[in-house]
Input
Amino acid sequence: MSTTLLLVQTLNGLQFGIILFLIAAGLTLVFGVMDFINLAHGVQYMVGAYFAAMFSAYTGSFVAGLALALPAALAFGLLLEVLVFRHLYDRDHLDQVLATFGVILFLNQGVKAVWGAAPLFVPMPSALSGSIELMSGLLYPVYRLAIIAAGLGVGLLLYALVHHTRAGMLVRAGATNAPMVSALGVDIRRLFMIVFGFGAMLAGFAGVMVAPILSVEPGMGDNILILAFVVIVIGGIGSIRGAFLAALLIGLVDTLGRSLMPNILRLALDPSMASQTGRAVAPMLIYILMAAVLFFRPTGLFPVKR
Amino acid sequence: MSGALLREEIGTGDAAPRPAAALRRHVPLMLLFLTLALAPLVARFGGESYVLSLLLRVMIFGIAAMSLDLILGYGALISFGHAAFLGLGAYGVGILMSHGFDGAFLQLAAALTASALFALVTGAISLRTKGVYFIMITLAFGQMLYFLATSLAAYGGDDGMTLPRKSLVFGTRILEQPFVFYYLVLACLLGTYLLCCAIVASRFGRVLRGTRENPVRMQAIGFGPFAYQLTAYVIAGTLCGLSGFLLANQTEFVSPAFMTWQRSGELIVMVILGGMGTLHGAIVGAAAFVLLEEGLSRITELWKMIFGPMLVLVVLFARGGILGFFRRGGRG
Amino acid sequence: MKRTFKTASLALGLGLFASTALAQSGEKIRIGLIQTLSGPAATLGQQARDGFNLAVKELGGKLGGRDVELVVVDDELKPDVAVTKAKGLVDRDKVDVVVGPIFSNVLLAIHKPVLEGGAILISANAGPSSYAGKECHPNFFVTSYQNDQVHEVLGKVAQNRGYKKVYLLAPNYQAGRDSMAGFKRHFKGEVVEESYVPLNTLDFQGELAKIAAAQPDAIFTFMPGGMGVNLVRQYGQAGLKERIPFLSAFTVDESTLPAQQDAAVGLLGGMTWAPNMDNPVNKAFVAAFEKEFNYVPGSYAMQAYDTARLIDSALKATGGNSGDKKALAAAIRKADFKSARGDFKFNANGYPIQDFWLVKVAKRPDGKFQTEVVEKVFDDYGDVYAKDCKPAS
Output
């Protein structure tokens, strides 16, 4: 395997990790601050992508679609919060799992009822289509670099918000000890709503960003939700920094594992055996990684101190 | 949520043999089993093999959900990889049969041993973690097994494999008789229920519940939770392996689709839906899940748009699942 | 506690009631349609259902002169769920014919319960090798193709065009492995890489980088559903579309083109048919379908449409009698109907003998996308397994 190929794969891994981070960030905050397991976080990603498809078809422009889809995703998240989720905050985790599972079933079928079962098309903004040559022989699509840049931007923004604003301080305090924050007179309901809405919007943003490169279809959020959970568990629940690093780790391990695994195994096994085993092991890698991390660090890599 | 229900059900100082005591209190439950026992006779009037097939699914998933309830409801161990045992049990049948070993007892022994061993190893690792970390590490092991199954090209890989027949009992095809198989599954369900009742009521079961309520205190009075939790995890995995063995025989088909993470989620849903920490709640939950899935999907293609909100409503307005709802109704 | 029992018996009663209510009725011919109608693959099942419905509608709501009662069920793409639903069709709804599923794993699961239940099973899409050879069954038919054949078309094309080096790409599951085997049956050049990606892969950047580095004469891929949508769009975005010919099976078709759009134009596929195929039956079918459902039909819809007309022809031959399954199966085997794809007859194993075409994606003047025939690759082509089938009848 050549260096160029390795570089491209690394960029791909980063880009995948960034998308995972956008989804995991909201999930880990909601979980960490509100102690709320939201399985329906994945459908917010899906809904974001559908909004992008609808608005960009309506306006004929991806940027306008993005601009409309973000507030729509936010509004949708808040609507769900008011209708369902806010009644679940003081329930135990299993009640939350059951109810949010119900929401997934409803919305996965709901988008099908509204937009049809066939995958939808979202055009790529023309300014960002095409590839650029990063170094000689290394062509890389501009749009994917844009995703990486946007994700890093959001990451920095989140960092600034969480560490340098009053709301962020409350969020951090909430992740450590929510009852105490509440006892100090903070309107915890409002804080929850802000955190929740923000998380929903981030997931929606991830959905919008992937819409031009992936197919927009019912159920697209289910598998990525599981990966997002893997990310926040490895990173340590409630930790934005942990989610960021774990997301990149998962993105890189998954992408590089798939392409390198057969080659690595070839050192020890004969070629056909190696490629067969490699194929079997590659999709397991991230789960093996998670099990190993939790074995040695039972509360993740960056546990929030309590 | 289930603590109150539990204390009510299993007294602490009762000297009577516990399975019998549980049964006396559960006359309605006996009626449930009686209904299941008589259903095939009613089914004769139409759609026999379909009704049997539907009820078999109820009972088989009832066993699986009950085994999950044992660790989830009584030990607060939320396993998100429980379907792996369903798959292990099923592949125990499929793999042996494809090599010409058709005997039910051998297959069952293999299915249960494989499930127990897998539970022992993964449980020992998983139990280092707690709460949501436990949920996710059990998911991880479930996923590993799922991907392993999809890569087994010799056994159908992703498509799974059709079994040539049901397992043989002493070389006879007696399980092919619909009623024989039906009552065998019913007996397994009843046996599993009685076994779980006995476990829950035993000293072991009380310690297990103690580890859920207050692990620190249990540790302090000399019960290290780990050994108890691991034992419970192995028992639950083995029982679920039994349901996998039955599922393979019912569908005469084995597939990695039996052990997707969605299926593990469905088992959790069955337990909570029925009312966790009650054992028979798991059967009610499995029945509600399977029959609603079947009934609603006949009404409309968009049945999940009805089923989803129903789950939300159960959580919001029926604490303690279906059982909890009716119990409160009965009191009020 | 009493309520527990009530709930349980209520739930049981619900199931029993549903089962008996529909069991008896008059002269209608009962057909069961088992398709994937939920989840991401639902669009394929919908095509099949729409195609079947259209044919029945055109025949005046009758098949072989008898009124039709169509029972449509969703297999949810879960084999064990499908087994129960199939038993329901045969046993409760007493259907005479079950028109089978999109996916092979569902077909494998329902094959036995349907045929042992005494109904005739016609798969309108899935065509696994499992039942094409020794395990063939007199009451089992396939109206699509044997899965390998479509992959063989592309292998043959690659061979005919003199490609020396081809890169193969498929998802890592049984059908993916079969596709590569099928491609290699007629392709004698060098396979530079057999690359498998995990099922449900969304991102192909890594593969595209490897393809660009390998510089093959062409790539062959089998990437159904959403995976195909992603691959095709990313293939174009990576700038490979103009440089390396793209041969594919089940990757660019009418079910995925609405999401692939311009990115797919010019890409090649193999099929038994395309919407622009020039025969009167097909022209009428495509026009009526688009008018009725407002989208371009794919092969899934065409095969289901053909299946309904096949059943119609068979029932006409038996004088509307569906009770004698042996006679009905024999009438079906004659395939005395005009297929939208032209020549069509059954092989000894119940799979079709038909022509296979190279097709190419094009944009129509009305802005919609469809595949169009390029050249015939195989004429009256049967599968390789049929010779192992010893007809029982």
